[in-house]
Amino acid sequence: MLAEWTNTIVQGVLLGGLYGMFAMGLSLIWGVMRLVNIAHGDFILLGAYVALVFGETAGLHPLAALPLVVAAMALLGFLLQRGVLNRTLGKGLLPPLLVTFGLSVVVQNLLLQAFSADSQALRAEGLTTASLQLGESLAVGWFPLGVFASALLMGLGLQFLFARTAFGRKLRATSDDHETVQLLGVDEKRMYALAMALAFALMAVAGVLLGMRTSFAPTDGPANLLFAFEAVVIGGLGSFWGTFAGGVILGVAQAVGFRLDPGWGLLVGHFVFLAVLLFKPEGLFPRTR
Amino acid sequence: MSAVRVERATRASRIAAAGAGLVLVAGISLPWWSDAGTMRLLVEFFCFLVMAQMWNLLAGYGGLVSIGQQAYLGLGGYLLFALANHAGLNPFLCVPLAGVFAALVALPTAKLVFRLRGGYFAIGTWAVAEVFRLLLANVSMFGGGSGQSLRAMAAIARATREPLAYWFALAAAVAAVAGVYWLLRSRHGLALSAIRDSETAAASQGIDVAFTQYWVYVVSAAGFGVVGALYYMNILRISPNAAFDVNWTAYVIFIVVIGGIGTIEGPILGTILFFVLRETLAGFGAWYLIALGAIAVVTMLYFPGGIWGAVQQRYELHLFPVRRWLRKA
Amino acid sequence: MTLVSTHALTAFYGDFQALFGVDFELDEGEIAAVIGANGAGKSTFLRSIAGANSADAGAVRLAGAPVGGLGAPRMARLGVSLVPEGRRLFPSLSVEENLQVGRSTGRVGPWTLERVYRLFPRLEERRAAPALQLSGGEQQMAAIGRALMGNPRLLLCDELSLGLAPVVIKSIYETIPQLAREGVTLVIVEQDIGIALGVAQRVTCLQHGRVSLSGAPAGLTREQISAAYFGH
Questions:
Q1: Of A66, B2, B145, B304, which has the fewest CB atoms closer than 10 Å, so is most exposed?
Q2: Partner-chain contact A289 C73, CB within 8 Å
Q3: Residues C115, B176: Cα–Cα separation, whole Å
Q4: What is the Cα–Cα distance from C151 to C76, expressed in whole angstroms?
Q5: Chain A residues near residue B287 by CB distance under 8 angstroms
């Protein structure tokens, strides 16, 4: 009994790593330019589909295709910010939200048109089923462990980027005061485009790993966005580790919910999110500035 | 200084008012000279018109972008099924009740979602809709995930229920447009316009921004609730995925953005355009939504006032004037 | 050699006109002071030169080349750095990180972290502190240092003395001639006329967006300056 619950919690934690990964891109963009990308989940899904295409046309294993997906998505993010989203900044609340919502619908339906509504999966035999035996009755899949480790690495990487590199300093400065930063020679529009490219790279990784973990369909985008968003709210704004913790908590809540009753899995996650919103709206681990 | 007077109507609006009167007479008499198919289409049209006005009130005037108003549409629909199918109440009575029910649910919900701001508020409203969807999918009384049919309507003769449904929808549309128009011409409307232009400036003038946004959210929810009951009374079958589908919001946003956000004429124009497009692009499947999405994105980027905004700027045309002009007496 | 000049420079904030045809000239290595009452257009003038406000291409010239309206990032990379009014250090960065962001112009030159710390030793002591924890005077030093890290040819200083105690103002202004000696041309906007005149070779007075007086401080009387400052 205890072993079963421990197993559930561990699965939840590992799932939470993936949610933390979803959330990092969302949190990064909000932190740098106060933009909420409603199409966030759909673009993560796009990453999975691009990997699918590489798999079907060039026979590439998803992990082999990963660098290509990352490059393609990063370029897309850069161009999207430069060409479309930069125009919505500084013009009030409605334009960014409405434009990204429109993009969400366009991306979803393009995927629907190109790939039909059927569920797909990224083929990665062996990798996704092998497991590590921990103790007597606890088995942890290698793949979920790998996803969790990747999420941790991602968090560490972002932390390092922001705290120690010149690019990270420029991003923080742009987020603090985008007018003054221009006086020092920083092109804020270019910064935003580079930040979006980085976010899209993260989303590409999340998408490929998602596709390897579970089957996906074009209409799954919004769910990804919701999980990312709930992870950010639960964890609190302002720190990558907070977001990551939020993702883990959400994952555990969902896993526990599914264990209790398959129809209630997602609901338990939503309830935890609503509870945090009600009792601690700033999140559980907010960064105090 | 010469004397001035404050004017609230324009020549165009007087003509439009006369025109609207004619349209209304035609609308009321429709069941006698048209067929069932047209009536059902118009019920749908009125539903979208009400939703567009409600969403425009919330976003274009209240400054709150919600992508989860479908929560209240679904609730309205399910209340209809609960009361008509399971409690034996007359379905038509359920329509206004659905609005009241939605408003009651919106009261505590608003307190929750208003803890979020801007983009996070938008997603939060969506999360709420998702919660309602999942909750109702777990209720076996309503057929769980696969939904239920409205048996209660079978008890009423077709010749009665079809025109009646149509008139209810027409009444809702007229009430929505007239209600929003009246609201915006009142001092509440001034408060809303001020909030839309600048929350901080409005607050410094003594406007209780939070309270105003709060009841705009509740009114908008009530509107969506009424539409939910009307719509599902019209198509006779409900399911959680359909009733709480985010595509409702997608359609409404496109209507309002392309028609002209922040105006009363815009949503009307947008709804007409939406239905014309829907009929002409019917066979194109997902391309229809792709086109709608792309047009909305381009409109938002380059013509933020939508079609009516462009017309208004060019010709200074106000069919539903909510502003006040100073003219020489 | 004339480093910077403006010709019939105008500036608008929406419908409001802030500058009405300002002519200005400054040679390399010189220090100019721009004085005037509140709202005279002094900050607008600096921002127009720095590229933060739009201007006609020929209205602002750097070493003879038209640079009006190129935008602040471009101007910074061309060697025009503005120390903005109110310091405006980046709150979530430390002192040293603020200075490091100053390098974003990509220009090579004598100014490095070590050099800035030698000029302002107090900053080295507080290098790891969050920028806003510093006193007003220290923040001003950091803002100047941040602009210097970009290795500018032309340094524009907007109201260095704002909100600072006299003794602190004095110590900051002692560094100004040092900067000029190291090859930086300076335009100083100041409300404190005495201190501005004490350090500048040229003074320009703005009144309601127009030049009301211009010349070397030595050749101007208190009455002339007062009249130009306040108007008749």
A1: B2
A2: no
A3: 69
A4: 9
A5: 109, 113
pLDDT of B55: 95
pLDDT digits (tens, 9 = 90+) for A80-121: 999 999 999 888 778 898 899 999 999 999 999 999 888 888
d(CA C210, CA C195): 22
- Distances B205 to A93, B208, C13 between C-alpha atoms, Å: 21, 9, 24
Tell me the pLDDT tens digit for each residue of B38-70.
888 999 999 999 999 999 999 888 888 999 999
Contacts of A180 in chain C (CB under 8 A): 84, 88, 90
Residue found by looking up tokens 């910074």 in the block? C76
Where do we find the tokens 């479309």?
A84
Q: Is the pLDDT of residue A3 over 80?
A: no
Please check whether residue C113 lies inside any domain of the structure: no
Task: Report the CATH number at residue C7.
Answer: 3.40.50.300
* Chain mean position to CA B215: 15
Does residue B107 sit at the A interface (CB-CB below 8 Å)? no
Q: B116 touching A, CB under 8 A?
A: yes
| Res. A126 pLDDT band, cuts 50 70 90 | low
Q: Considering only residues 149 to 168 of chain B, which have any Cβ-Cβ distance to chain A shorter than 8 Å?
A: none
Rounded to the nearest angstrom, the minimum Cα separation between C88 and chain A is: 7
Contacts of C97 in chain A (CB under 8 A): 169, 172
Mean pLDDT score of chain B: 86
Q: Are C188 and C33 in contact (CB under 8 A)?
A: yes
Q: Identify whether A86 is part of a domain.
A: yes
Domain presence at residue A68: yes
Average pLDDT of chain A to the nearest whole number: 90
C232 band by pLDDT with thresholds 50, 70 and 90: low
Q: Which of residues 227-266 of B touch A (CB under 8 A)?
A: 246, 250, 253-254, 257, 261
pLDDT in tens, B219-265: 999 999 999 999 998 888 899 999 999 889 989 999 999 999 888 88
Q: Tell me, what's the pLDDT at A204?
A: 96
Backbone angles phi, psi at B78, to 5 degrees: -70, -30
**Domain that includes residue C41, residue range:** 2-85+152-230
Give B1's pLDDT tier (boundaries 50, 70, 90). Answer: low
Tally of structural domains, chain C: 1
Within-domain flag for A246: no
Indicate the burial class of B223 (C-beta count within 10 angstroms; 0-12, 13-18, 19 or more). buried
Alpha helices in chain C (DSSP H): 42-50, 72-78, 95-101, 113-119, 121-125, 136-148, 166-173, 175-181, 193-199, 222-230
Q: Does some domain include residue C47?
A: yes
CA nearest B120: which of B198, A158, B112? B112
The number of domains in chain A is: 1
Q: How buried is C181 (Cβ within 10 angstroms: 0-12 exposed, 13-18 middle, 19+ buried)?
A: exposed
- The model's pTM: 0.89
Residues of the domain holding A185: 15-120+142-217
What is the number of alpha carbons within 13 Å of residue C29 lying toward its C-beta?
4
User: What is the per-residue pLDDT for A129?
Assistant: 67
CB C43 within 8 A of CB C202: no
- Helix or strand (DSSP H, E) at C8: strand C2-13
> Residue B329 has what pLDDT?
63
Model confidence at A128, in pLDDT bands (50, 70, 90)?
A: low
Q: Residue C150 and residue A184: Cβ atoms within 8 Å?
A: yes
The whole-angstrom distance between B87's CA and the closest CA on chain A is 26
pLDDT of residue C20: 92
Chains adjacent to A (≥3 CB pairs closer than 8 angstroms): B, C
The answer to the question of residue A173 being in a domain is yes
C145 lies in a domain?
no
Residues of A in contact with C145 (CB under 8 A): none
